Amino acid sequence: MLTTFTARVDRLLRSPRATALQALAQRLDASPDWFGYGSGALLGLALAWGALALGTGATLVLTAGLMLLALGLAARPRLVADGLPVRRTITLPLLPPLPAMTEPPDADQSAAAAPLPSDPDPFITLVTLPGGTFRMGSDPRLDSTAYADEQPPRLVRISPFAIARTPVTRGLWRQVMAEAAEPWRRPVPDTWSAGDETLPATGTDWFAAVAFCNALSIRSGRSPCYRVAGDTWICDWQADGYRLPTEAEWEYACRGGTTTRWFWGDNESGADAHAWYSRNAGGRLHPVGEKTANPFGLHDLAGNCREWCWDWYADSYDAAATDDPRGPEEGRLRAVRGGSFYFARRYLRSASRDWRAPTSRTVYLGFRCVRSPRRMR
Q1: pLDDT tens digit string along 367-377?
Q2: Residue 3: how many CA atoms within 13 Å on its side-chain side?
Q3: For the whole model, what pTM was predicted?
């Protein structure tokens, strides 16, 4: 019976009729904590008032149960999105000690380490990162807010690469994709169009992001990284053009040599100086580069807009993938990283992950470009 019920719920979540419910779940999931607790408390009080008005014992018991349910939902760590199972913050049993580093940390492992000089490009400002080894993911013994999909934490080696100092802006999109539609216009409403050249180019789905990378490569005289074979997109990792970062590259760049929950430390109160998020952004995008950069000189990795990555999403890491990991070979959803003006501080953590269907277009989701530095060719 339980199996039948579970199968029916799964079919419902994956049906077209669930689209609106999933969108609502995503919005509730992104809401600040005070909104969830406040909504649950108000619903519980309203139900309690109704029970007292009716004056029946059975109704009072039912209302008490519903109030507890409402407060439980308000305290949720994350709701269902895109038809996947519920993701929870879990408490794991004590894990064995993490493996020790097999070699001394590279220079970039220090938060004080400076990146290599920016690599000049005609359209975009890049910062060249030297590559190195870092611990990717979250250790639940050290981070009580870690999600299961941020585990297991493991040591990862990243090759040198160059990454854009900020997300792609609307001004750059117009410059490179002059013949293409502006994705932030439709289907998402846009109320910040005046003087918007420095706002992130959000509303782009994954396919638009890789198309932009190829177009920018061609405009810059580089070899495009992406080609499509049937329904499959293929990345030429040896090409010197622009591409989306892998999740490992993104987290390496975001951490900037740090090992703390946020790149500014373990205290979430530092968020205001480093990121636009639900508490300080006023419910809107902001021009890129306004907040304090991370130790590698990169802006807006923790907030303002979320960012597409190359990888297919998986609900846990492959512990054996330690050298330039690029995610699963196939999947249904693409990985998304970073916080946004719409999300609470817990989602600004360097290890925080999320997912979206590659066709998803939201006002808080953009992207930034990376490439292998020309001097390495």
Answers
A1: 999 998 654 43
A2: 0
A3: 0.72
